[in-house]
């Protein structure tokens, strides 16, 4: 069975915080609520939208807010979004070494695919898996679903939040925490990933070339 490496998307491969934050703020305003501070929104990125909105507006119409968010985000999802340094080089090298690569994100599948297409990420991955119809991370369902689609054995889960690390552990994968996203090194250390790194190239040190017949 082929071996696969699974990646979170936002805060791990792409710096999408500003596009998500702007869409979140716009949704609040359109629905008649105060605009939350950008830094407070950024601290919640990676959680399901419903949880994010509930944090600020527990008594509001969550469905209305989510629809407003998606109406803005669908058309503006990559205005400010950029790849983190060395991401595409590392992905290309991992595929050259024989690994299957998958995204496992909290985004719903349609949006995950849209962002990946617009960013030019899809061509570097073997599967893009969003979360819909099953529990979000830190539950491992999105990882298992991605691995099932690939018919592969999971090796590493790479992510920027404690939820990514806990989901990877629950799925039986080794975990690689990156420090440039939502959670810094001090927060990631609380869930004890196998590796915490300031550099994605460190993944190449723990993923040697595979012998593929």
The CATH architecture name of the largest domain reads 3-Layer(aba) Sandwich
**Shape designation:** globular
CATH topology of the largest domain: Rossmann fold
Element-level helix/strand string: EEHHHHEHEHEHEHEHEH
How many domains? The number is 2
The proportion of residues forming helix, as a percent range, comes to 40-55%
Strand arrangement within the widest β-sheet reads 5-4-1-6-7-8
Q: How many beta strands in the DSSP annotation? A: 8
Averaged pLDDT = 96
Largest sheet: 6 strands, parallel
CATH hierarchy, class of the largest domain: Alpha Beta
Alpha-beta content class: alpha/beta
| Total of DSSP H or I helical runs spanning 4+ residues | 10
Low-confidence stretches are none
Q: Which superfamily, in CATH terms, is the homologous superfamily of the largest domain?
A: HAD superfamily/HAD-like
Using only CA atoms, what is the Rg?
Answer: 17 Å
Task: Give descriptors for this structure.
213 residues; 10 helices; 15% strand; DNA polymerase, domain 1; alpha/beta; two-stranded antiparallel sheet
């Amino acid at each position: 069975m082929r071996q696969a490496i699974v990646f979170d998307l936002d805060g791990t491969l792409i710096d999408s915080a500003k596009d998500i934050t702007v869409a979140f703020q716009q949704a609040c305003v359109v629905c008649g609520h105060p605009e939350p501070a950008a830094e407070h929104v950024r601290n919640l990125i990676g959680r399901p939208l419903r949880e994010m909105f509930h944090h600020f507006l527990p008594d509001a119409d969550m469905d209305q807010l989510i629809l407003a968010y998606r109406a803005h985000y669908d058309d503006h999802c990559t205005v400010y979004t950029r790849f983190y340094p060395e991401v595409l080089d590392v992905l290309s090298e991992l595929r050259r070494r024989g690994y299957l690569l998958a995204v496992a994100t909290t985004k719903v599948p349609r949006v995950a695919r849209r962002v990946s297409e617009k960013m030019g990420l899809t061509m570097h991955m073997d599967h893009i898996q969003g979360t819909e119809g099953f529990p979000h991370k830190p539950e491992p369902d999105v990882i298992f679903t991605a691995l099932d689609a690939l018919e592969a054995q999971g090796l590493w889960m790479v992510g920027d939040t404690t939820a990514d690390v806990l989901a990877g552990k629950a799925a039986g994968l080794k975990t690689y925490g990156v420090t440039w996203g939502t959670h810094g090194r001090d927060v990631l250390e609380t869930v004890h990933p196998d590796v915490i790194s300031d550099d994605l190239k460190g993944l190449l040190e723990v993923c040697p070339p595979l012998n593929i017949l």
